[in-house]
Design a protein that fits this description.
The protein has 335 residues and is an alpha+beta fold. It is 40% helix and 19% strand. It is built from eleven helices and 13 strands. The strands form three sheets. Strands 4-3-5-12-7-10-13 form a seven-stranded mixed β-sheet. Strands 6-11-8-9 form a four-stranded antiparallel β-sheet, with no helix packed on it. Strands 1-2 form a two-stranded antiparallel ribbon. A hairpin with a 4-residue loop joins strand 1 and strand 2. Helix 3 packs antiparallel against helix 4 (200-219). The longest helix has 20 residues, at 200-219.
């Protein structure tokens, strides 16, 4: 939960995303800056939850920061739907990695992010607050996949369908909370801090309450839905992340496969979103990265190295495309 350290990159046929190792939070827990209470599966801090109880629940915990912190959870993704709720105090929150605009989370709001959405907690440092985190894995890594609901979630089939479709199509990540939601998180806190923190029945009941309240909030947030389809959203996510992975040996087929689409459909959405073909977008992304590398290295890095690190197979092709885009060959630009 933060990019102060090198994140772990998971690449699969499902999706590409970054699941970090929570090192800033772990350091704060170790130093006593925050109290951390809860259980987890995977890389998160907390008591390990073994067995099959509450299948799909990756994390249920809260931190209690008595004062403002000098660390934050940088932009990252999680391997499930993350629900973040601040019971007391406030802290910054953002799901806008481009403009770095932050909202202020208080008990009047709840943050809900999907596995394909980068988000950050803390603007220049986490605020003094008591904040809950619940991460539930529904088996999706991109917007156009079918949700697999854990058996302990008792919403009706029609409610599950509405919930998942809303999540697939909305770009919003911050919603108004409700009194019932606040009470549910408060009860979760009481369970986690008690000797019987593994009261699975009570936890399941409270989490179902949270999901039901979110469902009711979503039904009143119709204007938050985008007009784009889940397939278009997954291509948008791919293109947003492409600068970080443009050096890989992408082809039209592998890019489409990474999005779970046929090449023709993938190309259609690229044209719709960027008015360009997939390979044009890839080349442009690689060239922008190369330009930044030349500037950042003050001309010290060899152009051949820059070309290879940006995904170009030859320095000659790199030079040709660079001149086409920027008007001068890379050697002159470097000089």
């Amino acid at each position: 939960m933060g990019r102060n350290v090198k994140p772990t990159v998971f690449v699969s046929s499902d999706y590409r995303y970054v699941c970090d190792t929570c090192e800033p939070l772990k350091s704060a827990i170790k130093s006593g800056s925050v109290e951390w209470t809860g259980f987890r599966r995977g890389l998160y801090p907390g008591v390990e939850l073994a067995g099959e109880e509450l299948e799909g629940l990756r994390l249920l915990a809260y931190w209690d920061a008595k004062k403002n912190q000098d660390w934050s959870l940088g932009f990252h993704r999680n391997e499930g739907l993350e629900i973040g709720f601040v019971e007391n105090g406030s802290t910054g929150f953002s799901s806008d990695g481009r403009s770095k605009k932050y909202a202020r989370l208080t008990s009047d709001y709840v943050a809900v992010t999907k596995p394909w959405q980068e988000h950050s907690v803390g603007e220049g440092g986490v605020g003094a607050c008591k904040m809950y985190f619940a991460i539930i894995d529904f088996g999706v890594r991109r917007p156009n996949q079918e949700w697999k609901w854990p058996a302990w979630i008792i919403l009706s089939e029609s409610d599950k369908s509405f919930f998942s479709k809303y999540m697939q199509n909305t770009q919003a990540t911050v919603f108004k909370s409700t009194p019932e939601m606040k009470r549910a998180f408060s009860k979760i806190g009481g369970i986690l801090s008690s000797p019987n923190m593994f009261d699975f029945s009570a936890i399941a009941l409270m989490l179902n309450c949270v999901l039901l309240e979110l469902l009711n909030v979503f039904r009143g947030e119709g204007s938050g839905l985008s007009d784009s389809s889940p397939n278009e959203n997954v291509v948008k996510c791919f293109l947003d992340q492409l600068p970080a992975y443009c050096a890989e040996p992408w082809t039209l087929g592998t890019m489409a496969e990474d999005c779970g689409l046929k090449p023709t459909r993938f190309a259609y959405y690229c044209k719709r979103l960027a008015n360009a073909t997939p390979m044009e977008i890839l080349n442009d992304t690689r060239l922008e990265r190369a330009k930044k590398m030349i500037l950042a290295s003050a001309g010290e890095l060899p152009l051949t190295q820059i070309a290879l690190e940006c995904g170009f197979s030859s320095s000659q092709y790199f030079s040709t495309k660079f001149k086409e885009k920027f008007g001068v060959p890379p050697r002159e630009f470097k000089a």
